[in-house]
Each structure stands twice: as C-alpha cells, then as structure tokens.
Design a protein that fits this description.
single chain, 419 residues, alpha+beta, Rossmann fold, Coagulation Factor XIII, Chain A, domain 1, 2 domains, six-stranded mixed beta sheet, five-stranded antiparallel beta sheet, 8 helices, 20 strands, 23% helix
C-alpha cells in the first residue's frame, strides 16, 4: 500500500506562559548556537513530560515527544487519549498550523482540516463566500468549486442561510458548513478534530457516513480525533492511543479502545480496609471496608463471590441503605443492588451481597458504592474497589463477549430425525 502520512520522530516543545524563550539573552543564545555554531538548540535539552495533572518541574514542556508512525492511503485512523495527551497538537502539526520542534512530517496530497468550530471561516463573509475561500485555500479552481457547490450546501443543511454572514451562524451551523466544505472539496487527507460533538444526532450520523464513503469509496485518508468511543469504533479501522505526548499503543481499533477505556475507568484498589481512626469519614459514616471476597486465590467466572462493606455510624437514628453499582471495563453499569432502608443505632455495620457463580464474563470490573439516605444519595464512594474475573470454563472457549455469562441458561441439543 502507499503511505499517505509519515510522522518521523516528531516532537513539539512549548515554554509555559511565554512566547519564545522569554528573555532577550536566551533568544540571542539560541540564535547564536543554532545559526552560527551549527549546534543543537540548548533549550531542547530541558523540559518535562506533558502531564497536566502534576505541577511542572520545568518552564519547558514537551506537548509531543518522539511521535513515530505511518498512515497508509485509504486508512481511517482514530487518535484517542485524555485531554492534554497531544491529539490536537498532532493534527495542528499535520495541518501546518504550527511547526514541529524536532522531526519531519511527510504527507502526500492536499490536506483538508476541520480542527475547531468555524476554522478558516471569515465571520464577515457569507456561507457561500467562505466555501469559495476555503476551496481556493485547498488549491481548487472556481469552476471546480462551482461543480460541488450545490452538493456542499445540501449536505450542510444551511441553504436558507447560505447568503448570510457566518458571524450570525450558530456553532452547530458552522460545524455543518465547515465539515461539508472539508469533506466535499476533494482533499486527499481529511483531518477532523472533535467537532461532530457540536452537531445534532442527525448530522453526526450523516457526517460519519460521509467519512466512511470518503475513505472506503474514494480511497482518501481520514484522521479522526474524538472522545466518543462509539464513533471511533464505528468509523475507524486502526487507532493510536496518546498519553502525555507519547504514543502508548497502536493497533486494531477495538483492542486499543478497550485498553483506553479500561485504564480510564478501572482505577482503584481491589480491596480497601481501615480502622475507625484511619477510615475516611463522610458525614456520620466512617468507611471501614470495601472488598470482594471469594474462596481460593483467584476469582473465575464459575465461582460465587461476595461484595462486602463495613462502616461505623456515629449518628443515632440515621436512615441509611448501602447501594453498590457494578461497572464493566466499558464503563457500563451492569446492575445495582441495595440493602433495606433502616434507622440505624450508633455502632458497627456490615453489608454482604452474595453474587452467584456463572454470571460474569472474564474481565475487569469496578464498584461505585452509594450510601442512600431517604431515597437521596448521602454520599458516593467512587471506585470503592475493583476486581478481576478469570475464565472459568474448561473447554476451548477462553473468552466470551457480552456483558453477562449466564451458565444457568438451559438448552436442548439433540439430533433431529427426518421423517
């Protein structure tokens, strides 16, 4: 296959809060070192990992660090990761909005970009005038744009307002028109960054269908950034997972999406246990234990197990019920169960929920435990604990898809004699 895009060890560095190096002496030092001495930029040797959740230990940060992969012609590639992982920066480098600090990008063909709502639109120009302007930027002639004009306007659904200045469009209308222009003006590479979330459900369905046609029917390449994993699964064949400016994983879309969702949703410890002095207190309740208990060293899909919660109540007469919610790695709530609502005396309490064997598929699960007071949430113990279920079958099936694994379902299976 032909390579459409090639990222060769791309890195992008920023100085936090400042443009350039921040001081004249540093700027002169950089210019002298790079242009006269022909040596490496001294400010590329410093910098911290782009982890937005931690305090910076350097004035310099690597928004992207050593990104190296290829995209083949006709591929639809999803780019996923947490906010701040470097997804939008990567697409801005590809679209030449900004340049890389290190490395090179090779792309074959015209690139059509839709990076933000209304990107490239002039607010004082009408929708029709912006279509011609965007087409000219992509290198198309006026006659080529005229040939596509009716199709673009019809797809956008903005025909009534096409002669109205874009500054009077809603954000959804801007997205509709911007996507219609980017998808219909024949770029060999289409770059789309989390813009479909602004459009309504009908337009999202139409836009995803158009991107599938662009890639499969017309053989063009699509890079698609989104936090909507359902859209990523539906549209893309392969996926790139970014974390703190680096490529963490590349592979088949379902495998990478599952990996991303699991790392984002399955946080916390398997079992938690405290004393009355060390346990977290919420209102009148001190949490003492959140755990899954079972016989043996490992929990498998054929084994029963217990969800166990212990707490101390400090308030005489508090009305309370324990209500755990069990989630799978796709962040789908499988079920929730609840104790009877009761008025509690001061003292220690233990709630045990007996889960039968043969219910869960092999996989990872987490529990949010809600304490309910008079049909309202007294407090939510998020990620109270997690647990892993291993395959419990002895036959050749090592993994079953689906939410549940109901071995209690009966069936009949026998040869049928023909009359």
């Amino acid at each position: 296959m032909t390579t459409a895009i090639e990222f060769n060890h791309i890195s992008k560095q920023y100085r936090l809060g400042l443009v350039s190096t921040g001081t004249l002496s540093h700027d002169l030092k950089r210019w002298w070192t790079v242009n006269i001495l022909r040596k490496e930029d001294p400010y590329l040797k410093v910098g911290s990992v782009n982890d937005r959740s931690k305090k910076a230990d350097s004035e310099y940060v690597w928004a992207l660090n050593d990104i190296d992969f290829k995209v083949e012609r006709g591929d639809v590639v999803g780019i996923i990761g947490k906010n701040g992982a470097g997804k939008s920066t990567l697409l801005k480098l590809l679209s030449r909005v900004t340049g890389p600090t290190l490395g090179t990008i090779k792309a074959k063909g015209r690139i059509g970009s839709l990076l933000e709502v209304g990107t490239g639109f002039h607010p004082e120009l009408t929708g029709k005038e912006n279509i011609f302007m965007n087409g000219a930027i992509l290198g198309m002639t006026k006659s080529e744009i005229n040939g596509k004009l009716d199709e673009i306007v019809d797809f956008s659904g903005c025909e009534r307002y096409i002669d109205t200045p874009v500054k009077r469009y809603s954000s959804g209308m801007k997205v509709r028109l911007g996507f219609a222009v980017a998808a219909h003006l024949d770029p060999e590479i289409l770059v789309v960054d989390e813009v479909l979330a602004v459009g309504d459900a009908e337009f999202q369905k139409k836009a995803i269908g158009k991107m599938q046609d662009v890639a499969q029917g017309e053989g063009r390449t699509v890079l698609f950034v989104s936090h909507n994993m359902a859209s990523i699964r539906q549209l893309c064949q392969s996926c790139v997972l970014l974390e703190n400016g680096r490529v963490k994983s590349i592979g088949e879309v379902h495998e990478i999406v599952d990996q991303y969702l699991e790392q984002e949703t399955l946080r916390g410890e398997e079992n938690k246990e405290w004393t009355l002095q060390t346990g977290p207190r919420h209102g009148s309740i001190t949490i003492l234990k959140s755990a899954v208990e079972y016989k043996g060293s490992n929990l498998n899909s054929a084994m029963p197990f217990d969800l166990v919660y212990e707490f101390y109540n400090h308030e005489e007469g508090l009305t309370l019920a324990v209500n755990p919610h069990v989630y799978n790695s796709q962040n789908v709530c499988l079920f929730n169960v609840e104790t009877q609502m009761e008025r509690l005396s001061k003292g220690y309490y233990r709630a045990v929920f007996h889960i039968p064997g043969g219910l869960f598929c092999a996989g990872n699960y987490r529990v949010n435990n809600m304490y309910v007071n008079r049909n309202t949430c007294y407090f939510m113990d998020r990620n109270a604990h997690r647990f892993e279920v291993l395959n419990g079958r002895s036959d050749y099936f090592d993994h079953y898809v689906g939410v549940y694994y109901p071995t209690m379902v009966t069936h009949e299976y026998a040869p049928k004699l023909l009359k």
